[in-house]
Write a structure and sequence with these properties.
This protein has about 280 residues and is α+β, with helices and mostly antiparallel strands. The protein has a domain of about 80 residues. Helix content is about 40%, strand content about 20%. The chain has a four-stranded antiparallel sheet with strand order 1-2-3-4, covered by helices on one side. Strand 1 and strand 2 form a beta hairpin. Helix 5 runs antiparallel to helix 6. It is flat, with a radius of gyration of 23 Å. InterPro entries: DUF8108_C, DUF8108_N, Zinc_ribbon_dom. Keywords: Membrane, Transmembrane, Transmembrane helix. It holds the Pfam family DUF8108_N.
Amino acid sequence: MVLESSTPNFCADCGASLTSGASFCSQCGTSVSSSSESASGASAGATLSPFRQRVREYTVHGWEIEQDYGDRVVVIKRGFGSIPAHVLIFIVTGFTAGLANLAYAWYRYSPGASRAELRADGTERWVDGRSSSRSTFGVDLATAGGVAVGILLVLMGVMAMSSGTVSSLFFGLLLLAAGVFVFPPIQDRLNREQSLTTFGRERHVDTESAADDERCVVCGKRARGGVTRSFADKTYLAGVPLRTHEQGSNSYCHHCVVEEDIDTSAAKDRQVVRELA
């Protein structure tokens, strides 16, 4: 006797095909219920849990589900790089006929794409994709891409400097500096917080599990099992922080985090009702 999978073949929300055992739809982020659950809860219209709501909010804003482990989900936001970065690359490496721009676009779309890991306990971590972006030979694609681009820029810099003119010498030095800068060991040494395409003032919030000795800023109880949210408001130039306007961290216990998620969801529902009224 062949056992049928309890996972439906298509998403009930957007119609996308589903893989066997999937917990979320990779297209819209909607939670996947078994066939028996769908039959019993179709009329009731079961609401999403706070964790699944967060996953769906990410997908609404252009993120894709890359890995689904049930209690944690890795989402990815692909892109081809910002227009200012492409313009700068084309000006510096115009003689490559756009090959440098293609390499940069590929890097931003695959190994260098933004990734975040969402956990059911409220933890959100930003990841660089190196643990999941590997070739069939186990080679880290982000590191390999950085090395390849770095070597290419260095070679182009040497070729540009060989012509002997002042302008070519200047561009050659720029290419050499860029080539050295993109090498993964140099990047790790500089410990850049953002990518080269980050310009201007930005505020970022990172969430991680709270330490056992932390206290909740809301109720004053131990934050064990809760989360610590670190925030930073900085001005960046090509990913390098020039000025820190504000930074700090707050810890919350599990109870207050759940209450906050419920209050946030209720506030969004009230806002929708007001807009439809």
